Amino acid sequence: MVIVSLHIPSQLAEKLDRVVRKGGYTSKSEAIREAIRLLLREYEKNVALLHEEEFTGEVAR
Q1: DSSP state, residue 61
Q2: pLDDT digit of tens for each residue in the chain (61 aa)?
Q3: Tell me, what DSSP letter sits at residue 59?
Q4: Is the Cβ–Cβ distance between 18 and 9 less than 8 Å?
Q5: What pLDDT, on a 0 to 100 scale, did the predictor assign at position 52?
Q6: Closest by CA position to 29, among listed 53, 6, 51
Q7: pTM of the full predicted structure?
Q8: How far is Cα 51 from Cα 22, in angstroms, rounded to an integer?
Q9: What angle do CA 43, 45, 51 make, to 5 degrees?
């Protein structure tokens, strides 16, 4: 694994702490990895839809 360091507002860090405690994650890192996976999945889905629209000329819904 690669180490990534980031700065986030304290309010966001507090919300992340609550998600970890209540959401069944073992660590902040685990919760952030899951959030990144979800973000990338959505991004890839949106990119695929855009490519489909370009190819077919139709707007996917």
Answers
A1: -
A2: 999 999 999 999 999 999 999 988 999 999 999 999 999 999 999 998 888 877 777 665 5
A3: -
A4: no
A5: 81
A6: 6
A7: 0.75
A8: 38
A9: 105
The pLDDT value given to residue 54 = 76
What is the Cβ-side half-sphere exposure of residue 14, based on CA atoms within 13 angstroms?
A: 3
Q: What is the DSSP letter of 27?
A: S
CA 33 to each of CA 9, 12, 43, 53, 55: distance values in angstroms, whole numbers, following the listed order:
18, 16, 15, 30, 33
Side chain identity at residue 46, one-letter code = N
Q: How many residues does the chain have?
A: 61
Contacts of 53 (CB under 8 A, 6+ apart): 59, 60
Please name the residues in contact with 58: beta carbons below 8 A apart, sequence gap of 6 or more.
Answer: 52
